[in-house]
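Table 4 source record.
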Amino acid sequence: MNIPQNSLVLYKNGPARVAALGDKLDIELEDGRSLRVRPKDVLLLHPGPLRSSRELGEIPTGEVEAACELLDGSQTTLPELAELVYGTYTPVTAWAAWRLVDEGLYFQGTPEAINVRPLAEVEQERLVREAKAVERDAWNGFLQRARAGRCAPEDTRYLLEVEELIWGQREQSRVLQALECNQTPESAHALLLRLGYWNEMHNPWPRRTGAILEHPTVPLAELPQESRLDLTGLPAFAIDDEGNLDPDDALSLDGDRLWVHVADVAALVPPDSPADVEARARGATLYLPETTIPMLPDVVLQQLGLGLQDVSPALSFGLSLDTNGVVIDVEVVPSWVRVQRLTYEQVDARLDQEPFRSLYERAERHQARRRAGGAIFIDLPEVKMRVNEGRVDIQPLPRLRSRMLVAEAMVMAGEAAARFALERGLPFPFTTQEPVDAADRQPVSLAAMHGLRRSMRPRQYSSQPGPHGGLGLEVYAQATSPMRRYLDLVVHQQLRAWLRGDDPLDAQAIVARVGAAEAVASGVRRAERLSRQHWTVVYLQQHPGWQGEGVLVEKRMPRGTVLISALALETRVKVADSVAPDSVLPLRLTGIDLPEREAYFRVG
């Protein structure tokens, strides 16, 4: 290639003037700098003469579209293109023409072979480029706002990508990368809070854990026309916390006989019906401080909730206790019951009255028998948490004897159901738990309770009967919440099948249901636990000056685990080596990290 002195060449996509010739070329760049380069490093655009690269600064006006239309779809050279567009071929017009080629909208190629694009294709490309330019401006505007800690309504499309990372629908986010944030759900959550796109009232944990958040709407069977024992003459009491919305159990006393009535859910939800399949996929009702997502359609509660109608259908467990507190003389019957709803506080105030005095005496007798059988009794603080109109309310649950009465009656019913099934060889989802090797099975101090709880193995469901070490029972099955727990529903389905003389599910079907239900129910429990942690931190955020007390329940220096009873919250706090377990410590909130569900406290 013959490159004259003072010619116009292209060097690294920019113009240059050849100032001197030799083995290497001395070139002058547009900004005035001089370089020595090899001839093969440049591309000749015009032979010159070009007195200075600065002459190329002014771009002439030309007839670009006219030239494109004239040459539509053909091929040309740089000199011809400069002539057609600008009317002359000079260093200035050669550079201007090359810029058109480099831009690629109308022309593409090399100086010797320039392809001319059809105008229709040019128009389509122009629209594409304009759209990209608009998108680029929008993206840059979003980044500018995000770096300033704010967002606009039009930024939603970018932030949806960040939400997808939180939900586990993607592993990487262009937004997080551009803003130099970690590619983690917690970092994404923090960004959305910082931008005001989310606020503290946005609880991401149910969706993050894969919980089903829609109410079920599957069809239900009709309540079958069948014989039911009329127990409406017995006073029956559904005892719950104030505000409870799904009463599914009630108690009656008929002389020496205790009746535990349970909503007859299996009457409407037989095995493998659409509602049964839906409930199996959910595993349990999801209880969140801000809402409740039922396991079964709302109409189940409307038809079967005890005390919501004048008379309710139930599956009733009748039982007696011998002098040692052993469950005897068990019967299970479909029934009609008339239920009165009471709160724990109301019943606690009436424990010296019948039938509550006798009910409580039976609960104590049964509990004493379990205590003798090695049952574990742990009474750690509990709270009731609600979210309403942007505020989190946390109230400690009072220690009421009426709670023990109801809890013990439910344990009696579960033991009765398990014994009933075992005596008849009925396949059943039994509830078991490995025994705990502990000297003190009824600890008094919070530290001892905390340690004992940590040593306990989780309960298990099995098609084979076995002891429940935590309850101190030889055999047990959860049977009193078929509206809220799927395996309780399976218990009721099996009992109803036996009572009607139908074929119950076999052991293999029970095993399959145990596996399916526990797989999803564990996710429900995790969503509930993480949500409560989230709302506890929100509560503390809404009370930035919080001060209170905590009890040291475990020491792992330099920090110890402290239980804040008023919040039912365990936290790690730096404590002195001299502080003994069960010491009451004054605490002061020092900060929170909502995405991490962490609250930080200082002693003093």
